């Protein structure tokens, strides 16, 4: 089922009905198999009741979630004071849908279950904050389309958690592309030289909240986690739409997939044990183990496409562990007719994202004056932002106060979500562009296979 633009406007009409949400908002956490569910509660949130009901099957995933919340409550600096009520019976989903002890459900866990969870929640009249990806295959996407239709009818908020829109270097990349005297016009590019590229490198073994991350074993199963081409690329496609055509409604007809592929990441049993604490492969992974005893999981993916004629390429790579001092990295390029805006995060940058302005040719005095004016304008919203010339490019200098990090972005998205609940207008493009984003991913998924 496809949503029309007219039906999407029904969703927007519901976001002024703040009276339906008597403060404070009450959270429900459903089957929190991924640590992102806990990060929503890393800090106390104004207007949110400290009592949170958690519905999940008993087991290590629930235990890890509860331990994370306990850690937030017991830390020395700025401790939280969440009060967790656990419901871990065998029929936890039916129990939650019957009791509905809150009005906002946070969903972040096994991706194969997520689209059904979302649909069931909105059918029950519950608002939903869902971690990406909301769907990992065409069947799941059909459920998400249905969920948005139901949300429109019931005037509910269903939001895909897009944390990367709050990353400061990405925000400034978007802002600088709005100055034609500096950036020019967005280049159209070509299949071999896309105008927009985004590459994200992730690692199975890493630190979260200062501690080694323990992954659930299903995270290594593409049928449960989803292949990279429909997982992390959710963020990348979202950013291409958000940066290149801000405030525009993007239609499916604006997108054409040109090529797509996916490939494996090898994981040894020792590596698997290090991050899952299990010393043997689960049955559902055994078919992916090669003759040498190495797991070959379809974790990498990329595709090239056009968005309103602009050539873009998104790539996601998964490795087991980052080099010393490094972590997950992001490389993002927007090519304009006068300059490129390039976020680099390699060894040269100390594995921290750095935004550069790279002129297309030798800059003249007019371009330099335009750059100075652009930075002055941007600094009105982001005080302290500046540029420094380094060889043939300019580095954007960003004050540390804006570099809050990935974990803090979940609180920022939650703040946005609560604003929509309490009557703030949801952008008219949010819902239709979310659906176009997932249609783009599903088409790339089909082509990669």
Major beta sheet, strand line-up: 10-11-12-7-13-14-15-17-16
Report the C-alpha radius of gyration, rounded.
22 Å
Number of strands: 17
CATH topology of the largest domain: Dihydrodipicolinate Reductase, domain 2
- Work out the helix count: 14
* Class from helix and strand fractions: alpha/beta
Number of structurally distinct domains: 2
Strand content: 15-25%
**Mind describing the biggest β-sheet?**
9 strands, mixed
Would you tell me the overall average pLDDT? 92
Distance between the first and last residues' Cα = 23 Å
CATH level-two architecture of the largest domain = 2-Layer Sandwich
CATH superfamily heading of the largest domain: Dihydrodipicolinate Reductase, domain 2
- The low-pLDDT segments are 1-21
Top CATH class of the largest domain: Alpha Beta
Helix content: 25-40%
Oligomerization status of the protein chains: single chain
- What form results from the Cα inertia axes? globular
Notes on the protein architecture:
The protein has 449 residues and is α/β, with parallel strands linked by helices. It folds into two domains: 5-163 and 409-426 and 435-448, NAD(P)-binding Rossmann-like Domain (Rossmann fold), CATH 3.40.50.720; 165-406, Dihydrodipicolinate Reductase, domain 2, CATH 3.30.360.10. The chain is 35% helix and 24% strand. A nine-stranded mixed sheet has the order 10-11-12-7-13-14-15-17-16. A six-stranded parallel sheet has the order 3-2-1-4-5-6, with helices on both faces. A hairpin with a 2-residue loop joins strand 16 (386-390) and strand 17 (393-397). The longest helix has 19 residues, at 430-448. Mean pLDDT is 92; it is low at 1-21.
